[in-house]
Amino acid sequence: MKKLSLGRSLKLGSLVGRVGMSTLANRLVELGLSDERARKKRADAMVRNAHRVVETLSKLRGGAMKVGQMLSLQSSFLPPEIVEILSHLQQKVEPLPAEIVMMEIEGALPNWKGIFESIEQEAFAAASIGQVHRAVLRDGRIVAMKIQYPLIDEIVRADLDNLRTLFKALLAIFSEMDFESFWEEIRDRLLEEIDYRHEAENLRRMQELWAGSPEIRIPELVGEACTTNILCMEYVEGIPPEEACSEAFPEALRDRWGKNLLEMMMRGIFEHRLIHADPNLANFAFAPDGGLILYDFGCLKEIPEDLARNYARMLRAALEGRLEDVPGLLMEMGFHRTGNRPVEREFIDGYIEALWPVVDPDRPFRFGQEDGIMEKMMELGLKNWKEADDLIFPKDLIFVNRSLVGHFGNLSRLGAEAPWREIILSGCRSADSPLP
After folding, report:
1. CB 368 within 8 A of CB 414
2. 170 by DSSP, 3-state: which?
3. Which residues contact 65 (CB under 8 A, 6 or more apart)?
4. Which residues, including other chains, have CB under 8 Å from residue 275's CB and lie 6 or more apart?
5. 111-143 burial, b if ≥16 CB within 10 A, otherwise e?
6. Taking the complete model, does pTM exceed 0.85, yes or no?
7. Closest alpha carbon to 220 in 229, 210, 265
8. Domains of the chain by residue range
9. Buried/exposed code over 173-212 (b: 16+ C-beta within 10 A; e: otherwise)
10. What are the tens digits of pLDDT across the range 368-403?
């Protein structure tokens, strides 16, 4: 373990040093340049260092890759060039050999033969922290076993200091934002993800919240086969995302999937105040009747009651055309400039204008075919990131934003049309309801 940690630390430490020196050198060079040339120089350095980050992190499982993946979906807080480069970390990971996996199972569950009739040797899914195998219980039920990679807990914790320094240096190229709050939220979600007992509890909570819902299906937990590094749940088969987003399925069915996806988010934010906060479409499957199946419960986010209520008030003001109220409502959410100054209307209006077609009451909106929504958001990010370096935002908003932006991308992949305005307004109206 010491040798493994040393090797990883050297790789990450070397990367931290290169990015840090690049940042310092760039700041010195900028001193003698015009604003326009300095901006171009900074953008070049940002892209160059982002490529360095991806090249190194893509070779390291665990926290290194996972943090990069989390950041790749933070398009409201990061320049689009960074988001585009980090998005390559969403690619699939090669699974571990079967013999290593069986050693992990035997170490965590000495009585596994009394629980399982059989375990498939080949993983059917692999990610940054663990991989998933199908198995059959003694009572005949088919289950999915999520098995952590060896020593992943120690590896993630050993990576944290280097990762903090690395991404602080990377963000310092283009922003003076409050990195510590940003990092604390990323770190906390990451540490939760490596504890499968915590994920098991997340699964139980989601089962209770969505019990009886025909649209959102949560697999049943198999508690006797769960440990800190093994999570076992009912295997619920569905249509994989790649197929669901294709023209192999009728438009009307894809519309139902899209409608249920956004309703899940709205109910999660405003009614349950607990959201599934990893919008990677690989965490979902699709049922032939329009329902959604959730698979991964490592990254959930609790929404504070005051944030949910203020967020609902802000969205309703925007939807009802009361744009003059939006800066003040954002301040009540904790989103403002340094010195407790409200965000300017000019900054806000561009985003509302870009998103308005989605919620226009006069015409339906189909994602993916006519919108260019994601492209417009990226253009706004590129235009505004230099003016965003003194923004203060509530850290609890980070994963809400990550999820909404990620699901906008998923709706575009589905090419879905639904009454988006009514779905959002219905969610906002539930913000004042007591928790279930």
Report:
1. yes
2. helix
3. 57, 58, 89, 93, 128
4. 265, 268, 269, 300, 301, 303, 399, 400, 403
5. ebeebbeebeeebebbbbbbbbbbbebeeeeeb
6. no
7. 210
8. 2-91+152-175, 239-436
9. bbbebebeebbebbbebbebbbebebbbbbbebbbebbee
10. 865 577 667 766 765 666 666 678 888 899 889 889
